[in-house]
Amino acid sequence: MAGVFVLGSLNVDTSYYLQKLPEPGMTVPAGKREKAAGGKGLNQAAAACITGAAVSLIGAVGGDDNGRFILDAVREYPINTDYLTETEMPTGTAVILVDEDGANMIAVHGGANRHVPVEDVSFREGDWLATQLETDACTVRSYFEMAKEKGAYTMLNLSPYEVLDKRILELTDLLVVNEHEASQFLGVQIRCADQARQAGRAMSLRGIKNAVITLGSDGAVVLEGGESRHIQGRRVKAVDTQGAGDAFAGILAGELALGKTLMESAEYANNAAAECVKVYGSTLVSLRELENRKAAESSRGGRNGGYR
Q1: pTM for this structure?
Q2: Under a CB-based contact definition with an 8 Å cutoff, are residues 248 and 283 in contact?
Q3: Averaged pLDDT, 17-22
Q4: 120-129 pLDDT, tens per residue?
């Protein structure tokens, strides 16, 4: 069975819950504060575990208290840590502001995440390597080249957005972006499903054959083989959106590794992401809630944990 390798960041997140996000120069009170393990790499690896796929995490932490905090969190999941490295740099950190409607603002200090060494990884044919851009782009390129040489597939979550070396895009089998990242990447405004569906030609001109554009409550658009298909969004009461994007990407990678089609995988990921925004807290808190619901549904004979 194919496995999932996630190259990405591991951060200690501090979330502040506010009535309203501040404007420049403003000071606002926080009603609640939460410290949690996070980072796009850890979040997506944990999400991939929900699918039952075999998951390995490639990344770096510091030899500090935050690093030990992160490693304790990783051990709560069936994640292979053979490719986690301890560096002299401090462990990555992030500050997250969340308003009462679930919208957020995030500031990240990369630390050790920007110094992940390139080491030989035992990719096999059919495996998936998923990554984001909280690690150095040169590191992403090196691991993508290694994965492709060994017959693995590559998935790039272009988040946070940055202009990339053309070679990385050439090595990308599947691009995953939200509407804001897609707009930056293509240089056109994408605000709805119709605009996302029309993005296929523009994607191909930039060397991308397959892509998923997530649209929040409007679902997602899958661009594959010159065709585009819209996955309807689920209307839910969002209280905290910080778990959704990473949950979508990680579950998408896990399903693909299990042999599901891109459309099937994106539908599952879309439903799970919708469940995540109904839960206060970090991505890992949201994922644990998903796992609990899945276990409860299974014990009652429910189908696919109630969110597939």
Answers
A1: 0.91
A2: no
A3: 94
A4: 999 999 999 9
